[in-house]
Amino acid sequence: MKETWISQRRTIQLPGLTIDRHISLPNELEFSGCNHHLLCLLLSDGNEQKLTRIGEQESKKPQTKGDFWICPAKVSGLWAWESTDESLMFVIDPLFLCRMAEETLGLDANNVELLSTVSVHDPQIEAIARLFQTEFDTSDIGGQLYLESLTQVFFVHLLRQYCAFQPKKLNDIENLPNNRIQQVLDYIHTYLERPLHLAELAEISGISQYHFCRLFKHSMGIAPYQYVLQQRMEKAKELLQQKKHAIAEIALLVGFADQSRFTRHFRKHVGVTPRMFLKKN
Question: Which residues make Cβ contacts (< 8 Å) with residue 238, sequence separation at least 6?
């Protein structure tokens, strides 16, 4: 499918999810379905939607900012609009969503059926979309670990609210066993200088990524990405006090791609810039 109707686009690639932020020009688009689930949320005002048809669902009214539609995999769709719109398109891997259903809700993967949805407004979906949008704008809200955690929240909400089944009630939250949480913490401290992913931390703990996030937060009081960022700041303070490394080198040693991003985070969490911290110490 040629996408001549898209004038600008930026993309974030995550496990099981591609997020595409684009500006679409007036057009009429029809397709017979694709191999992925699609969710598209409108970011701009002034939409002039003439027709949205997804499977058996149809709407001829304009969308408002924050509205979204869901087109499940293999389902045909037809869209016609006369405005220039900015949107977030979530391209969801069905196999990944099925695995999430098994791991988080204890469901049979064969029963995961995403529902066709047209012109819906959901405050939680909109809030999650805004957080992803911030990543496009700043690339500075916690890195890969944060985005993967946000993806987990996004998928679980879809499974609970937009699938053709009644989700199983989740078990009560427990703590991670002390030996497993210590293994995870040791691993984080050992590899602070490189990008960390939920999959590797969950593997160490021996549970699914979703349950790892829940149990880690319950055990430690903060989310995994927050703990990693906290420990990077503590390590940075130690290195600054040693006065053996340049600030740019310390940024790399605690997992930041550049000094400016490191300085921004350091000032936010410590209250002063690294250079001011050096002067005070």
Answer: none
CA distances from 25 to 19, 22, 64 (A): 19, 10, 17
231 and 216 inside one domain: no
Number of domains comprising the chain: 3
User: For strand 37-42 and strand 68-71, is the pairing parallel, antiparallel, or unpaired?
Assistant: antiparallel
CB 67 within 8 A of CB 41: yes
Contact 5, 61 (CB under 8 A): no
pLDDT in tens, 64-92: 999 999 999 999 999 999 999 999 999 99
Given a contact cutoff of 8 angstroms between Cβ atoms, the answer to whether 281 and 274 are in contact is no
Is the Cβ–Cβ distance between 29 and 62 less than 8 Å?
Answer: no
Are 88 and 148 part of one and the same domain? yes
- The phi and psi torsions of 258 (rounded to 5 degrees) equal -155, 165
Which residue type is seen at 213? Answer: C
51-56 contacts, C-beta under 8 A, 24 or more apart = 51/78, 51/79, 51/80, 52/77, 52/78, 52/79, 52/118, 52/119, 53/77, 53/78, 53/79, 53/118, 54/116, 54/117, 54/118, 55/116, 56/116
Identify whether residues 94 and 17 lie together within a single domain.
Answer: yes
Each residue's pLDDT tens digit, 221-236 = 888 888 998 999 999 9
pTM here? Answer: 0.73
